[in-house]
Amino acid sequence: xxxxxxxxxxxxxxxxxxxxxxxxxxxxxxxxxxxxxxxxxxxxxxxxxxxxxxxxxxxxxxxxxxxxxxxxxxxxxxxxxxxxxxxxxxxxxxxxxxxxxxxxxxxxxxxxxxxxxxxxxxxxxxxxxxxxxxxxxxxxxxxxxxxxxxxxxxxxxxxxxxxxxxxxxxxxxxxxxxxxxxxxxxxxxxxxxxxxxxxxx
Length: 201
What we know:
2 domains, 3-stranded antiparallel sheet, 5% strand, elongated
């Protein structure tokens, strides 16, 4: 069990910055000051992978991380050699800032939009579940509409009627049958002529 002072000390070291370490994957984030000390003491270098408020919590190589790269001797923006004590890059004039707010993860600010429950809550009582306000499900009534104009006078043999479609299908079937028979006849004539020609040779 941690002593109260030890717990406060541990909580005081939590922050929004992480150094990628395969051996300590679940280690909490550290403060900017701790990360700056790691940079000054050369415990991290330009190739170290870090994340924090200036990377929007995405892993980046330290030489590209605003707030850290200049402590390692490079400008995060243009890559120019700089001194850790410089306030801005002499080449691109990008300022070197400190990001010491422990509660700022660098993500978008603002509250999510208010949502509405989708369906029924699982926390309703039995009485609330039984007291539904929904209407019973019914099939819609199908109303037959009379076509307007000349089509209104058409009888069961009109163009859109089932009888007309049946007659149309029979006609198409007869056409296909005639085509198949014609092709079969031509093929049989050609085969017969070929056999006759072969026998006469």
